[in-house]
Every structure is written in structure tokens, then in C-alpha cells.
Amino acid sequence: MKLTSLIAGNPVRGREVLEVFNPYDGSRVGTVRMATHDDLDTAVAVACEFTETPTRFARAEILEKTRLALESQREKFARLITAEAGLALRETRYEVGRTLDVLRFAAMEALRDDGQIFSGDISAQGKARKIFTTREPLRCAGAITPFNHPLNQIAHKIAPAIAAGTPIVLKPSEKTPLTALKFAELLYAAGLPSRMLSVLLGPTSEIAEPLVRHTDVDVLAFTGSEAIGKRIATIAGYKKLVLELGGNDPLIVLNDADLELAVTLAAEGSFRNSGQRCTAVKRILVEEKVAPEFTKRLVAKTKEYVCGDPTDEKTRVGTVISESAALQLESVLQDAVAAGAKVLCGGKRRGAQFEPTVITKVPRECRMVVTESFGPLAPIITVRDLDDALALANSTAYGLSSAIATTNLNHALKAIKTLRCGTVNVNEVPGFRVECSPFGGIKDSGLGVKEGVIEAIKAYSFVKTFSLPW
Ligand code: NAP
Asked: CA–CA distance from 6 to each of 3, 34, 40, 189, 211 (Å)?
């Protein structure tokens, strides 16, 4: 597959090519012609000059037509994501389904006017006037996305921007650019004015950082690691920032939990998408009394997560994104073992493949507990009681999402009140959401500005207030 970076639907002229390899077998999946700093400037200028914002109806139609086109090519997109990301087909088919939802909700929201009306005569200082609000597009949005949900991540940037009527310049991950460019083709074919979307790949110094710094970019939406997110915050200058960064999400399992459910949540939360979800379960905090039985059952459950060829229907865990990412997981695991942790199952690496791994007796201060490890690791840490669990859950720098397994409503309510993070899910994995619900973290996981289709539309637009005599 030979693709090229696109300025408003047109191929760039550069000669440098980015090669994309399949993390499972090392085969070349495709190439992308890269853009330059000049191309980036052109893309932003073209976006800013665009003034023929489609009507709400037309925006909804574009999003709906794109959804129907994606629906008819579900399997093709799932296989493309599997080829460039190494994720099992089970996961990539699921991801395409989520993207269909993003498009559906964005089309619905494009039709909805959230304008407000206030009477001007409701105070002693007031007058007989009415005050109205209307939402208007920004000049240009910039978006930078990670590798781990290569289709859904970009849909979460592009679809709300279209719904808001704001042109967007996207820089997808260099590890998974093919899915992004094929998705852009669907949007143009569905009638998106080409000047509303450019998709550029190229070196960080040519594309990503100039996009972040560009003074004509009104909003910069970034999803990725904490380190890059914080760098963006220091160089972006005067613009709106939406930062969706890393996580270290806990699953708390109390003595009163439905144990079978807790085990399922732990396995699904830790191993889905090869553990490469910002909201994957990264720490399992289990009350002492129930820990032995929970651990035994989780080890048995983990054996159901077949790790192998991502295109094999039996496979549930494909590769992580690269061999170097798998080596990093190996090193995190070795550190934990050196500090006294015990591997109960999994733990082996073959190339970019890392087996689903259950680890027990994990010291609270080791790297696996304190930082984000992006892979299928399930570290179990025993806790004395709910208070101990909540303190430990809150002890890391991150604050993205969390979950608690309990049958006691008071325990659930205490967790909801006490956990310092963007989401608390009771008897569900931390990653549960619908694509239009508010999503995003605090602390090192983000600035508290939420995404999800409805919130993202707000980020990609501004509210104009006007008043009339009445
Ligand atoms: P990453 O290394 O931070 O890269 C993310 C994007 O930033 C890529 O497109 C990357 O481009 C680009 N980039 C690299 N250096 C940059 C710079 N100096 N300025 C601007 N952009 C730059 O993240 P990743 O490894 O792809 O993704 C995994 C991370 O994303 C994890 O930490 C995960 O938790 C997080 N994540 C968060 C959420 C959320 O909603 N909170 C969702 C998904 C993932 P290149 O590809 O060209 O390097």
C-alpha cells in the first residue's frame, strides 16, 4: 500500500518516505510520502482561509455517509489496523465498531444547537433585552494522535471538528499512519470540503512541533504520553489545549466483590488491546482476605487469553506495537521480580509479542506500580481495607480512570468521592465509556478538559454571546 500525506486532499510533493512494518512478522505493510514544514504551513493557511462552513445538516450528512462507508468496509479497516498495529482481529473489529459510534454521535450532535437564551431584565441592573449564545467554528484545529487506537483516536479528533465546522490538520502516529490516511479518503468521498482536513506525516521537527507552535492554530488536541504532553504544554504558546495523556488505572477488588465478575474485569481490563489502552487496568488492588482465591481464579482466566498470530481467529492478544516496546515491558517485569515480585503465569517475550502476565507480591514502590507500563501486565497488590486501597490508588502521579468491584453501595460511593481521577466505574473496567460521554483525566493524565464527542465539539468551537433589545 503506497499512500501520501494529504494537504486538503492533495498529495504532498516531497520525496522522503515513511515505511510501516507489521509488528508481528516484520513484513512491510506500506509506505507514506512525508510532508515538510512548508507543507504544514500550507495546510494551516488553507484551513484558515476556509470560510464556506457547511450547514449543520450538511455536516451531519458527511459524518453519516462516512459512517455508512466505514460500515461497508469494516473488515478491511480491521485488517489494516491489525497489519500495522499487531492487534488481534477481535480487538480491531471492536475498534471499528467504536468508530462507527463516534461518527453516529457526531452526526447527531452536528444537528443539535446548544445555544442558550437569558432574559436581560432579571436583575436590578438589567434591561428589557435578551441575551443569546451561538457556537462558532475556530479557524483551525491541530490534532496529534498515538498509535494505540489508530482509527478511533483520529475519529475522536476529526468527527467533532467537522460537527463544529472547524477545519483540522491531523498528525497521526508514524507507527500507524495508513489507517488514518484511508479514513481521510472516506471523509473526502463522503463530501467533506477538502480544505477542512489535512493529514500530514513527517519528522517531529517538521510537522508535530511546528503544528503545536503555530500561531494560527486555535486549539491543539493531543493524545499520547505524559512526557510529550508536558512538552507540548511548554511550547504551545497562547492557544486552547486539550491534553489526553497516560494513565495508571487501578482496579480495586473488595472482600464483598462478586469474585467471578472481578476476575473477568481484571483480565479484560489488563489484556484487551494487548494492554495498550490508556485506561487499561495497570494495578489490581485486592483486599487481603479474598486475594488468594482471586489470584488463583485470575491465573486460570488468563490462560483463556491466547497470545499469537493477530490474524488468527483464536488469538485474543496480538503483539504490542514494537519489539522495543516489548523489551521495555520485559525490563519493567525484571525490575519487579528483582524487588520480590513473583510471576504466576506468562512473562515471556517473542519479538513484539508479550504474553499476558499475572504478577503477585508486587512491591508498592516498584516501576510497574508507580509508572505507566503499556502492555498486558496484571500486577496484584494486596491492601488492608478500602481506605488503604483508595490511598494507594491515589498515590501515583496519574489520574485518568479507575474501577472498583464491590457489592456494597457505601463502599462504591466512598470510592467515587475519594478517587482523584477523571472517571470511576463501579463493577466495570476503568475503560468503560460511550463515545459521547465526557472522558479525560486530571493530574499527569490531563488538564481536566474532557473529550468524548460532545465535550470535544465544545473544544473545537467558541461561544459567541449576543444581545438584542426585547
Ligand atoms: P507518544 O509517544 O506520546 O506519541 C503520540 C503522538 O505524539 C505521536 O503522533 C507522536 O509522533 C507525537 N509526538 C512525538 N514527539 C512529539 C513532540 N515533540 N511534539 C508533538 N508531538 C510529538 O505516545 P504513543 O506511544 O504513541 O501512545 C501511547 C501513550 O498515549 C500512552 O501513554 C497512553 O496512555 C497515551 N494515551 C492516552 C489516551 C487518553 O485518552 N488519555 C488515549 C490513548 C493513549 P510520532 O509517532 O511521529 O513519534
From this structure: 9, 9, 10, 14, 15
Question: Alpha helix (H) ranges present in 371-469?
Answer: 386-393, 409-418, 453-459
Residues 6+ apart with CB under 8 A from 207: 35, 37, 39, 40, 171, 200, 201
**Alpha carbon distance 159, 141 (integer Å):** 12
- Could you tell me the sign of the dihedral formed by the alpha carbons of 450, 455, 461, 463, in that order? negative
Distance from the alpha carbon of residue 295 to the mean position of ligand 1, in angstroms:
33
Nearest to 177 by CA among 391, 428, 416, 5: 5
**What is the C-alpha separation between 202 and 187, in angstroms, rounded?**
22
pTM for this predicted structure: 0.98
Cα(275)–Cα(368) distance, integer angstroms: 13
- In this predicted model, what pLDDT tens digit does every residue of 298-314 receive, in sequence order? 999 999 999 999 999 99
Tell me: the pLDDT tens digits for 339-371?
999 999 999 999 999 999 999 999 999 999 999
Q: Tell me, yes or no, if 244 is annotated catalytic.
A: yes
C-alpha cell at 42: 500550507
**Catalytic residue list contains 435:** no
Q: What is the mean pLDDT of the chain?
A: 98
DSSP assigned state of 17: E
Q: Whose CA is nearest to atom 38 of ligand 1?
A: 278
For residue 133, give the 3-state DSSP assignment. strand
> Domains of the chain (ranges plus CATH)?
2-245+446-469 (3.40.605.10), 249-434 (3.40.309.10)
Beta bridge partners of 287: 383
- What pLDDT is attached to residue 14? 86
Find the Cα–Cα–Cα–Cα dihedral 224, 228, 234, 237, rounded to 10°. Answer: -50
Going by alpha carbons, the residue nearest to atom 47 of ligand 1 is: 174
The closest of 43, 452, 32 to 221, measured between CA atoms, is 452
* Cα Rg of the chain (Å, integer): 23
Cell numbers given for 139 = 479557524
**Residues in contact with ligand 1 (CB, 6 Å cut-off):** 144-148, 171, 173-175, 204, 208-209, 212, 223-225, 228, 231-232, 244-247, 278, 372, 374, 400, 441, 445
Q: How many CA atoms lie within 13 A of 7 on its CB side?
A: 20
